Amino acid sequence: MGVATLGRVIDREEEAQLLDSIERWLEREVRPVVKDHDHADRYPVEIVEQMKALGLFGATIAPEYGGLGLPATTYAKLVMKISSVWMAITGIFNSHLMLAMAIEKFGTPAQKSLWLPQLASGEVRGGLALTEPDAGTDLQAIRTVARRDGDDYVITGTKTWISNGIEGSCFALLVKTDSTAHPRHKGMSMFIAPKQDGFRVGKKLEKLGYKSIDSAELVFDDYRISKEHLIGGVEGQGFYHATGGLELGRINVASRGVGVAEGALQMAIDYAQIRRTFGKPICEHQAIQLKLGEMATRARAARLLTLDAAATYDRGERCDMEAGMAKFFASEAALTNSTESLRIHGAYGYSKEYDIERLYRDAPLMCIGEGTNEMQRIIISKHLIRRNAVT
Ligand SMILES: Cc1cc2nc3c(=O)[nH]c(=O)nc-3n(C[C@H](O)[C@H](O)[C@H](O)COP(=O)(O)OP(=O)(O)OC[C@H]3O[C@@H](n4cnc5c(N)ncnc54)[C@H](O)[C@@H]3O)c2cc1C
């Protein structure tokens, strides 16, 4: 039986083989080096090369452009698996695939045939540049502007918190093409922005967790690009392009949350059998059993919510509410499970010798990125009212 999808049908056996090869790669190449890279905050060059060979930079790009064309359900399982070992590396291809999706979904035929094959192979890598120093949740408040000049646009402004900002070479860049438009979103446009004169990295941002992947401020100073870089070739569509990928973006972040929640649980299960107090393993104390029971239930619920949202997406149905619920619940599950696992590890949880401290530092990001969890609850509520309107 196949997995239903918008793009193609993937055989269950093919999915199992793919996930199996990812698991073998994680155990052989990734797990042994995570701690060292994370503590050094070092970009994992060899792992990125291996991710290219595995096809991860083209995971959701259609096969006609050289991608794997995975359905959301398979992609979610893949992200969960990788995140249970090292969440940060999923950001290297996740953000990149959001750029690819903006082009694949909204680009002109010429933009698709030029950019998608280079993105699918990982030859060109990048991400999504939306956030600014004074505009995150309120995206319509951005100030980066693009001024038309003949067949070109000239762009000025600053973006911040951009994942892959240093190592990436091309970004989906959200700007204002009309700062006076009302409503504000009608003056927004999205460009494919390769690094060239006028586009520089302002600074690398230091973070609590999510190490090794570069987060940067990007500065655009009279950055000139041709009109062929305007996604879809029409001004005023940028807000839709930026939010058009949010359902899949939230399923991605939810999958990362599931991976961290499950990874933290597994570390707790292992440690609780080895650590002994009062003559027995701590897993035989009821206080620890209660924690493990709750953590396991939380992780499983997060997985099921996320796969449900992904399956809805694959059927081609709207899933804003389902993806929002999955993102909200799974990221909070990651936060709670990593905290509980750290507590089960006692003082060793607080030590850099054990891996749980990394999960504890990584987890909060998922509550912030791709729409904060405060906003998710508001969105869920709005959908509830809309779907159950009393007439
Ligand atoms: C490690 C990392 C990587 C990132 N990667 C990227 C990237 O690749 N590309 C990119 O464009 N951005 C990226 N971001 C930015 C991220 O998307 C934003 O941080 C996020 O959208 C929140 O915006 P903000 O930080 O400006 O918070 P603000 O919008 O200032 O919000 C502050 C607080 O107010 C709350 N709030 C705001 N408005 C409301 C409201 N109407 N009702 C209730 N509560 C509200 C928020 O929930 C939050 O708690 C990244 C961030 C981090 C930390």
Protein architecture, described:
The protein has helices spanning 12-30, 34-40, 45-54, 72-86, 88-106, 109-121, 238-243, 246-274, 286-314, 320-344, 356-368, 373-387, and strands at 2-3, 10-11, 126-129, 145-149, 152-163, 170-176, 188-194, 199-204, 215-226, 276-277, 280-281. The protein has 391 residues and is α+β, with helices and mostly antiparallel strands. It has 3 domains: 2-125, Butyryl-Coa Dehydrogenase, subunit A, domain 1; 127-239, Beta Barrel (Butyryl-CoA Dehydrogenase, subunit A, domain 2), CATH 2.40.110; 245-387, Butyryl-CoA Dehydrogenase, subunit A, domain 3 (Up-down Bundle), CATH 1.20.140.10. Strands 4-5-9-8 form a 4-stranded antiparallel β-sheet, with helices on one face. Strands 3-6-7 form a 3-stranded mixed β-sheet. It starts with a strand and ends with a helix. The chain binds flavin-adenine dinucleotide. Flavin-adenine dinucleotide (FAD) binds at residues 95, 127-131, 136-137, 161-163, 207, 210, 215, 365, 368-369, 372, 374-375, 378.
